[in-house]
Amino acid sequence: MYFEGTISIDPSQLTHIEKVKPTKAFKRVFYYLTLGNVSDQVEKETFTAVSILQQLNDVLIHLGIDNIVRLSHDGIDFYLDKYGKEGDLKEAFDKYDLEIDHSMSTHYEKLVMVMEHDDTTFKYLLEIDINRTHKVGEYPIEMKVTGLLNQFKKSDKDRTAVESEMSDIFKDQEAYNKFKASKQYEFEQFLNEIKMAIIKLMKVDDVITKTKTKVVVPKNKVQEESDIRYDQSFGQYGVHYGYYGFSDFLFYSMLWSNMSHTNNITMYETHLESDMGEELGFFDEVDTSSDYFNDEVETDYHDLETESEDYSSDDFESNDTGFESTEDSGSWFDFGGDSDSDWGGFDDFDSDW
């Protein structure tokens, strides 16, 4: 088990609605029929990459978070810490500022900054996504915060020793529920600290926070750190990427579902995922006596069925910034406005049927 929070940020910056070509086949039909008057409406933010990084830097420094893991610009890694450097935030920003030119700063599509931090309870990974182009209603900046329980850090211990340290949690259902509630409360306190720093130090229209309880269901038994699988494919930035030093903290989470199975624990309001971070769905209640949670049996993820995949009652959502949203609403199915198309001719339309 670990916790994952999302903090969605809407900065107070001038935005405008810009037409983009439909990307799905049925929308293309409407395009030809209406001469381009049907489009996705997306907001193109006017802020530049460097200006947003500067504001986020103020927030992170205020919180004492200065350990950067990765800085990526449209999929290009300008900084990736492979050696566990500490206090390297300024170094990464200086390197980025030197290597990026003005055109890249203004015309980026997505920036990703990955930070690490720890306190007395959690080892945190913070993935900050800055999207220059996004759909109406979505916020351009999202921070995903992962909290791993640092009390079960593997270090040089074997699996049996880690399981022994975790055993009190699983002695009965009451102990399990109490532990989960206590740690979730501490995690949400940290999210609130970040939120208040954002409101204080950045110009924002709105900040929304949510949290999830997540449990990993490994495909195969994880006996050692070397058995942990990672996803380092393009576009992957989260805790399952395999960043330096995180396997020690991720190891216990690979044992959690099996210990729940062994001790007949019922999980409530829990999001399940594979050992490579693939979402398996949300469960209001799940009986872990099933062999899906027995790591002596290879897990078939396709057989796991979810009761709900959207929201859970343990997701806490808050946007009490005191601001009113200034965001315009819109739909791609909109025939109003100017009848002239600014997309160019049909020759510009590449097919992806």
UniProtKB/TrEMBL annotation:
UniProt name for this protein: Uncharacterized protein
Region (Disordered): 305-353
Comp. bias intervals (Acidic residues): 306-318, 337-353
